[in-house]
Amino acid sequence: MLGYVARRVAMAVPTIFAVATILFFIVRMVPGDPAVYLLGDMATPERVANLRAEMGLDKPLYQQYIDFMLGVLRGDFGRSFENGMPTMVRVLRAFPFTFELAVAGTLLSLLIGIPLGVAAAVRRGSKIDVLITSGTTIGVSIPVFWLALLLIEFFSVRLGLLPVTGLGNNPIERLRHLALPAFSLGIGMVATVARMTRSSMLGVLGKDYITAVRAKGAPWNVTVYKHGLRNAIIPVVTVVGLNFGYLLGGTVLVEYVFGRPGLGSLLIEAVFSRDYPQIQASVFFFSAVFMAVNIFVDILYSFLNPKIRYG
Amino acid sequence: MDGLIKMGEIKDYPSFLAGLIIVLAVVLTAMLAPLISPYDPIEQNMPHALQPPSAYHLLGTDPYGRDVLSRIIWGARVSLYVGLLSATIAMIVGVPFGALAGQLGGIADALLSRVIDIMLSFPGIILAIVVMSILGQSVDNTVLAISLAMIPRFARLARGEALQLSVQEYVQAAKASGAGNLDILVHHILPNILSPILVQYSLSIGSAIMIEAGLSFIGLGVQPPTPSWGEMLSLGRQYLYTAPWLSLFPGLAIMLTVLAFNLLGDGLRDMLDPRLKRV
């Protein structure tokens, strides 16, 4: 087990390295001189030269690359063009807000999606099943940012029930501020979770041991939830993990609509102000989180399902 | 694959049929835009700004007095152009590479698998955002950014399928009788992995349309005044309190179109894979 974990983590190292390399070169593909961009067209050549030296742009490319990668190892992606703060510090400050949103969205999707999937599987072929199954197809087709707008329009503008922007000062207010963003983000995942739960439950409910439990005289509810769902949950966990990347991508749009702080807002702001060090740090962090979650899911999967052998 | 699907059988696959009908409707709308659009989608008409839906403007007007229905009709062009083109490019680039890697195995496979892993370690829309920030905003750069984000999905799928096929006896037989790698790829591997690729293609058109809308919504995709559904929503966002119709209808158009390609993809999967046939 430990060997597997170590190997899985070791495999991610070259990928992380490659991601950093891509980020280094991609920013250098930008047409024009960042120093000129920062200072404006009217800047004197001396000032441009000074800034280029300060940013290390006057060094040969390989030296710039080595400096960059050494920085990456220390978690140092340079300073933001925007406000001179270390870019990683800004990322780490923004991350808890994105994490909170992603976790809330995931929990919501499980809370809604699993019961829907179970209901559909148990009454397979019934009207409820058809309704839930077609509902999930529609669910994955709704753009998160549109859903967010509709929710704002209904719950905030019309009913005045929930706030749109801000974060809230106390725990209850915080949850109220989180409600609409988390729901917008989670709804696409609800569909995925419900579909996976349905097909996984259908597989499990057809197994002999379920028949045996039934024959023993166990009530239907106990059969479904204790014996059925417990065995059907592994693929659901996996699919949630594998879709975490989409969820992270979704946070960008949701944070934008609600004006919430977070990694996504930071990235979009950096893109519009052409704050390249900030873009590099933000994207690097996104990828790192994404990879970490994938590794975690793999490990969890092998832990939950001892039948799987990793040779 | 020919002969597998008979026209009469299509009615047994309601989701495929529903998807097909909506897709055809959207395609027709896009093609006939100059004929059916009631107003010019770009020309401003300030005296008519922000009118709610009425007999003159069925879906209302925007802050510049432009007819929302007309802009949605023309917006179908952008969505379809970006969706079809980026999914096609991603397929054409991703599938041969993935299939060849799966077929050859060994170092080629190991290398390509790493490349796929690396590309997949960026969440799709984030990769697209970064590429747009480097290339600058235009319709064609949007296509490029989205296809880049979708190539690894096709490559991974094709690799997995080809890997399974490469150990099949008929492929081994072809190899033993002296067929070259390219020959095997073109004649034995590609034709047999067509079904899952086709399903993925349809689903990818839907997600490409979704990503384009997202990019344009943020302001990184198609630039105004070109009518695009995502850009219309970003305008609508500023008028949520006074003109909610601006946010409602373009989103509905995105949802319906994406839904149509998803239904088409799901339906194709059911049709082409008899094992999954729903009872």
Using the coordinates above, name the CATH class of the domain at 94-304 in chain A.
Mainly Alpha
Give Rg of chain A in angstroms: 24 Å
Summarize model confidence as the mean pLDDT of chain A.
87
Backbone structural class of chain B: mainly alpha
How many H/I helices of chain A? 13
Task: Say how many strands of chain A there are.
Answer: 0
Average residue-wise pLDDT of chain B: 89
Question: What is the CATH level 1 assignment of chain B?
Answer: Mainly Alpha
* Distinct helical segment count of chain B: 11
Strand share of the residues of chain B? Answer: under 5%
Structural class of chain A: mainly alpha
Query: Helical proportion of chain A?
Result: over 70%
- Under CATH, the homologous superfamily of chain B reads MetI-like
Number of domains of chain B: 1
Describe, in short, the structure shown.
Chain A has helices at 2-28, 34-39, 45-55, 61-74, 87-122, 127-139, 144-158, 171-205, 208-215, 220-242, 244-258, 263-272, 276-304. Chain A has 311 residues and is an all-alpha fold.
Q: Helix and strand layout, with pairings?
A:
The complex is a heterodimer of chains A (311) and B (279).
Chain A: H1 2-28, H2 34-39, H3 45-55, H4 61-74, H5 87-122, H6 127-139, H7 144-158, H8 171-205, H9 208-215, H10 220-242, H11 244-258, H12 263-272, H13 276-304
Helix pairs in contact in A: 1-4, 1-13, 5-6, 5-8, 5-11, 5-13, 6-8, 7-8, 7-11, 8-10, 8-11, 10-13, 11-12, 12-13
Chain B: H1 14-31, H2 33-36, H3 68-104, H4 106-120, H5 124-135, H6 139-166, H7 169-176, H8 181-189, H9 194-218, H10 229-237, H11 245-272
Helix pairs in contact in B: 1-3, 1-11, 3-4, 3-6, 3-8, 3-9, 3-11, 4-6, 5-6, 6-9, 7-8, 9-10, 9-11, 10-11
